[in-house]
Amino acid sequence: MAQGSNFVDYVKVCCRSGHGGAGSAHLHRDKHTAKGGPDGGDGGRGGHIILKGSHQYWTLLHLKFRKHIIANSGEAGGSALQTGANGKDEILEVPLGTVAKNAETGEVLFEITEDGETKILTPGGKGGLGNWHFKSSTVQTPRFSQPGLPGKEEWIILELKVLADVGLVGFPNAGKSTLLSVVSAAKPEIADYPFTTLVPNLGIVSYRDGKSFVMADIPGIIEGAAEGKGLGHRFLRHIERNSVLLFLVPADTDRTIEEEYNILLNELTAYNPELLDKPKILAISKSDMLDDQLEREMSEQVPKGIPYLFISSVTGKNIQQLKDLIWKEINQ
After folding, report:
1. Which of 15, 155, 161, 209 could form a disulfide with 122 if both were Cys (CB 3.0 to 4.6 A apart)?
2. Are 44 and 21 in contact (CB under 8 A)?
3. How far apart are CA 174 and CA 102, in angstroms?
4. What integer pLDDT is reported at residue 70 of this predicted model?
């Protein structure tokens, strides 16, 4: 299977909630009562379509081929004030970071960010009232009741934005996948050509005293990604949910460090200016090929005001110091 064939971060589904059950217009009769009053019960509520957060899912793959989500209708009310049963709710488990949108208007309805969190996506129709609600001094035997309200049918977009403590931002071949494979147990595909990574990869990074944090390798951004070039436009949204942004610039870049960093920053700004408010760290990767003098010269190219380190995933140079710096930024 191709890389990422089991990673789905966007689905469009048709949701149809259940109709409400009709109220009953029953009049009480038994062998001792020839003309009893109204005793029709209410109809049951139609089934909701509900989203539930689950940390056991990391993709929307299980919903990719399920285009129609249909909940059951409520049952009609009965005699003796019996309320009809509610329609069975349809509960969809989704990974944390899932955003629900109206497909027609693009309006964001809500997002699921916590394990076990539930929110109603498409509400079921309300059940109709039985005839006992309508009795009065002037209408003592109402022979009518309310029908149940119809359910709702709408197209919904479910969009996953990966939740991670730190997101790796860099051009293709900057060494993001290599760094992730070194600091965690993740096994991303690594090769010497651009766009090796086609989907976000997550890894749990072990830290001191049994602590850990989650790192996400976001597919490579190129200049113009915010306008839809390359793969970046599709995956820029995953960066929105990361607490800290770790910019990776390779030591063998054809540009200066500041130029490469500014291009990456401009792409993020063009996509969402709020990303500028996130804590940022700069790591100059592949620095095992540098001597002390070259490091000092390249340090002068680093943008002012951003913490930085020269690292090497191959030799392990400054990897622990990078973890310390990330942990400090996450917990500030």
Report:
1. 15
2. yes
3. 37
4. 97
